[in-house]
Amino acid sequence: MNATDIALKHPASEVMCPIQHIQEAQLLLSYAAQKGLELPEDIVHTIVEAKHAQQSQHWNSDVETRFWLAFNAIARAVAPASVSSLKATHPLPEQYPNNFYTGFLGFLRKRFFPPSVNSIAQRTVSSYQRFTLLVLAILVVVQFYSLIGSHIINGIINVYPTKIEQLELERSRLQADILPENLMENAELITLDRKLDEFHTRLEANHALLKQWNFMWRYLGISSLGKHLKSADYLPALERNLQYQIIHLQEAQFGLQALQLYILPLLYGLLGAFAYVLRTLTLEIRHLTYNIESNIRYRLRIQLGALSGLAIGWFTDPGSTVNISALSLSPLALAFLVGYSVEVFFSIMDRLIYTLSTGEMPNAPITRLQDKHNT
Fold first, then answer.
1. pTM here?
2. Which phi-psi region, left, alpha or beta, contains residue 174 (left: φ > 0; alpha: ψ -120 to 50)?
3. Do the domain assignments include residue 203?
4. Tens digit of each residue's pLDDT (9 = 90 or more) over 176-186
C-alpha cells in the first residue's frame, strides 16, 4: 500500500500529507524551469524533499512548514501564472466510457474520430469561437434582411413616386405644347409614356416584394393584415388593394425600425463583446494566466456588451452618424465599439449622470465617482 492509498483511507493523514499541493508545487516548479526563471536552490530542494518525504511516509511538521514557505515563494516567483491557470492550459485527454473504442464501432470511432487532447483553455476558446460564428451568421442574415427591406421601402416611398411625379410633370408640359392631333405620333411623348409605365411596373413589383418581405411578421403572428382582410371585403378591388399596400408598408416600416433600433445594435454589441473575449483569451493563454474562474467574467462581459449595444439604439437615430474625435461612425459601428469596450460606454454614462446630478462638467468626474463607489 502506497502513501496515496493511506491518504485516501485515512483523512487525518491526508491533512498532514497534502499530496495534491505537492503535485501543484511540482507543476509550478516545472513551469519555472521551462521559462528559465531563477529560483533559490533551497526552495527547489524543499519541494523535492517534501515529495520524497510524502512517498516515504516521513511527513512531519518541520517538512510541512518548509514546504508551505517554499510553495508561497515559488507561487510569487511565477506570477501572474498560477496553479489554476497552469492546470487550465495543461492538455487533458477526452473522457470516454471504457468500451467507447472497443469492437467494430470503436475501431471506426478511433479511425475517423481519434481521441483529442485539449486543455480547458482550448475547449473554452473553441466554445466561444462557435458562439461568435453563430452570432456573426445571425447578424449577417438580419443585416441582409434589413438592407433588402430598407431598399424596398425607400423605392416605394421616395425613389419611384419621385420619378413618376417628375415624368408626369414633364409629360404635362410637353403635352401642352403639342397639338391634339399629334399626340399619338410624338416620339418624345411616347418615350415618356414608356418610362412612366416602366416606373409604375417597378413600383408594383416593389409592393409585391414588400409583401414577401413581411412574411416574418405574419410568421410571428404579429401582422394585422389577416384581421383587415375580413373587414375590407365590401370595398372595391382597387381600393382594397390600395389598403393592403398601405398595411404592408406600415408593417414593414415598423419591422425595419425594430431591426435597426433594437435587434441590430444588440447583435453588433454582442459581436463586439465576443471579439473582446476572444482577444483576451488569446493573450491569457499565451501568458498562461487563464483560469476557469475567468469564464464568469467573460459571461458578464458578453451580457454587458449586448446591453451596451442595445442602449446605443436607444440614444441614436439609425440614419445618423456619431462624431468621435475625427471619426464619423454609424450607430451600428458605435454599438460594436461599445460592445468591445464597455468601460468607455459606462464611463460616458457616469460622466453624464455626474453632470445631471451636479450641474457641473469637471475635468475628471469619473475619478470622483469611482472614489465614491470604492468608499
1. 0.71
2. alpha
3. no
4. 776 566 666 66
